[in-house]
Amino acid sequence: MSQENIKNNLNRYKTKYYWNQLIRGILFLSFTIGSILLIFSLLEDIFWFSSTTRLVLFVVFLLAVIGSFILWIGIPLLGLLHLRQGITDEQAAIEIGQHFPEIGDKLLNYLQLTHLSQSESTLIAAALSQKTSELKLFYFPKAIDFQVNKKYALITLALLTILVLASFVNPALFTESSLRIVRFNESFSKPAPFQFELLSDLEAFYNDDYQVKVQISGESKPSEVYYNESGRKHLMKRQNDGTYTFSLPAVQQDINFQLEGAGFYSKPYQLRVYKRPEIRNMTLQLDYPAYTGLADESIANTGSVIVPEGTTIKWSITTSDTDEIVFATEDTAKAFQQDNADFTYQQTAKSSFAYKLNMKNAHGSNKSPIQYEVSVVKDEAPSIETTFLPDTITYKSLAITGNITDDYGFRDLGIIYEIGAATTGYIPVSIKSQQQSQQFYFQWDLDTLELDAQTPLVIYARVRDNDAVNGFKSVYSEKYVMQSPSDEEINELIDNKTEASENQMEKSLEMSETLNEQLKELDERLKNKKEMGWQEEKLLEDIIKNKEKLEKEIEELNQKHKELLNSQKEFGKQSEKIQKKSEELQQLINEVLDEETKKLYDELQQLLKEKSKANEVMDQLSKINHKEKNLEKELERALELFKRLKLETQLEQTAKELEKLGDKQEKLGEQLQNQNEDPKADQQQGDQEDQQRGEEKPSTTEQQQEDIKEKFEELEKQLQKAEQLNQELKNPEPLEDFNEEQQDINEKLDEIPQDLKQDQNKAGQKMKNAGQKMKSMAKKMQQMQMSMEMEMMSENIDHLRDILDNLIKLSFEQEQIIQEIKGVRQIDPRFIELSQDQLQLEANAEVIEDSLLSLASRVAQISNFVTREVSEINRNLDATMVELRERNKGKAASHQQFAMTSMNNLALLLDDVLQQMQMAMAEAMGQPKKNGQQQNSLPSMSEMQQQLSEQIQQLKKSGKSGRELSEELARMAAEQAELRRQLEEMQQQLAGQPGMEGEDGQEGGTGNKLKEAIEKMEENEVDLVNKRLTQQLIERQQDIITRMLEAEESLREQKQSPEREGETATQKERRLPPAIDEYLKAKREEIELLKTIPLDLNPFYKKEVNDYFRRLSGQEQ
């Protein structure tokens, strides 16, 4: 029991020991915390450490507190709670023995004895008993004195007193300094003598610009203020109102910043960046009304559309950062239906409206208004634009072209016409009903309407759209009135076209003369020059440009003369004879331009580009000079022929009208005489005649007579005009004087009005006499014209025969000179004599040329090819003289040979022309044509061809040469040309008859056989002229005879076959006038262009594109 008491007494000591340690630890911990807090706060208050230093202080403070707490509080507390082994009994015994000297080591010995082995228990027990009795007198806890801690408590209390006093003296010492240490991760600025007042809101939107705006207040203010972000400083801009600003462009994330001025910082700020509501994708689904025929479609990324009325529109929008979308118009606001980030809205468009999309989220709305417009297109009436293109040459056809447009298509298009007040007709025009915009054209042959000059034709077009609801809206075009021209209008029309053609000829001739002058000037400048200067190059460029202009003028001349010819044909204002001459003149005009000249100019232009030498350009100019001089002559010739033809036409037309007027005057006299004998019968007869003629009956005879007198005066003026035209000719015709006849007729016409008042029988007789004199004068004019023509034809034939003889002689002379020069050396005096002979031959050629050109100005049958051959002769003769002067025999002989070949070719051509002129004269003199014997003439021609073939074979075997051979070959070439001409004439007469073409277009027809024979004849003519007696020539002769015999057999079979007698009627195709045909061709091309409009265009844009092309078409017209 005693031992147990000692144990308990020892434990009570330990408990008091731990309490003493705990009290002391609390005092130590309080002192430590207070002293560190005081020291660190003082340091921070003085130095305003950085975040890093404050972090170190805070860590040191925490470590000190935690270490002190563990050491002075934790360990004693664990020992007190017996959670940790504290001091041992032996350590306690030692401390107790030290406190109680009386105990000393007794307690320690006692504890040691209690651990000894039990084998010694008797002795130990005695010792323990003794120790127990000694120790029980002591109370161990008294060894612990709490009063010892009083000094520590006083020290701690003193420290606490200091802390309290410091907090009163400087309240911010612990509240702010210690707070800055604890909040070491934040930036704190040392209190400045001024204040930063941030005026900007600390919220911004993504990608928006943000402006930091601050105002400084206080007694002293810094001179500069900086924006500080992550240690980077930017000077802020001072504004007039004393504030400072700094702009941050397109902020995209949160930003921490401070403001700095004079070394002082503001508190830290944080700018929060939010995102606005945004459209990621928008689609409009358009559901068009069924009647429009439009396919439904979707339009992406646009909110403005143009749609037909009644279209249902569905908006589908995909967004980001969006909580709500409101569809707002001027009158309403409706929310979209939302499905997460997708929003939809649907509405039927009945009229045009503008709308906004208002988007919102928790932080704001869309920055700028999202505005769109829906334009609704009403179903409007169609539109039509028409152009009427009458044939101003024949007035027998009309082309109608134009544009029609509508929203969605058409029902029909038609042409409505009115003839007078009674007749109305409708002609449908084919169109594409579903094509919203299209062009149309309609060609109308007016012959079926049987129009006359008194009845107008009114034409207009009507188009209807496919709007069945509104009754197919109709629109009419403007009306066009067309009326056949009167005789006076026809005469005026032909006169205008005649004048236009003549003016164009004169203009072309003038330009040709100017071009030749420029060529001559350039040739003079290039002489004795090696290189071309810039002036020569400029002149050459002008020549090429002028040539191009001349070609265009000649093409225009060709077109104008064709129009004149067509008008004359259509209105029948010329006789067949003059019509034939007009066609021959047209053929001459067609052949004025040739490809060879164009090629020469192309080569000249290439020389200019290559900066060629002067001599090369001169060589080319030499070739062109002959061509251009020939062109000038051809134009001059065409103009002279045109004037002569104009004279003949004027005389013929005047005679015709005079004869017609005389007949009218004579009938009026008979009517007047009959009227006195039987007024009623005569009245009825006159009415019937007027009705048959379709003329309005004059109210009185005086008026009719006055009209006749005016018409005769007009014819007198026409006769004077003919005399003026004759004087304009280079070689005027010997026109007869009709002054006596005119004076006699005028006297009768002047007496008639007075006789009508006194004696109508006498007036009627004078009318008949005046009419007879008019007819007599007309007949005299016709006889004069015929006599002039026959005399001119006779003179022309004689003249051409002389030219042909001289040309053949010239060819023989050229051949003789060629042969003689071959045997003469250049140093031989005979060479000079032969050169002089060549020069004389050239002069003779010029005489022939002048005579031929003079004849060509009167004879249209002489083709341009003849004049060009003359030009070739002159060119080669000129070149021959140049080479002879240089004593270059080889080149001179070559040019001589070419000149002789051209002479022979020209002789063949002129012989052909001579034959034509003789036949024309025979026909004019009334000699019968041999049309009835055409088929019988083929055998005779085959026999003549056989004879010619035999003559050629004999000539080849004869061995003839020189002049004798040349004469034989020339005669044979002429015979071959005559046979060919007769065969060509037969081919033309047989054209179109049954059997002329082979079956199914094969080459077995008679016409093809004749054509082959003619082609081989032409080849033989060339060989004979060029003195080529070859085996091929003889073989071709046999082929020609074979083809002619085959054609003869075919004709014989056709004559015997009854199946050949019938002919199938064919419809003659009516050709449009060239102007209308070209216009319609251009319109067709424009239609094809319009068809290329993409089919997936919005209807509105289709309409705009069509309008654009229509306006463009209008500008071209």
From TrEMBL:
Residues 672-709, 924-969, 987-1007, 1049-1075 are annotated as: Disordered. Residues 930-939 have a biased composition (Polar residues). Residues 690-699 have a biased composition (Basic and acidic residues). Residues 940-956 have a biased composition (Low complexity). The keyword RNA-binding does not apply. Keywords: Membrane, Transmembrane, Transmembrane helix. It comes from the Bacteria. The chain crosses the membrane at residues 21-43, 55-81, 152-174. This is ATPase.
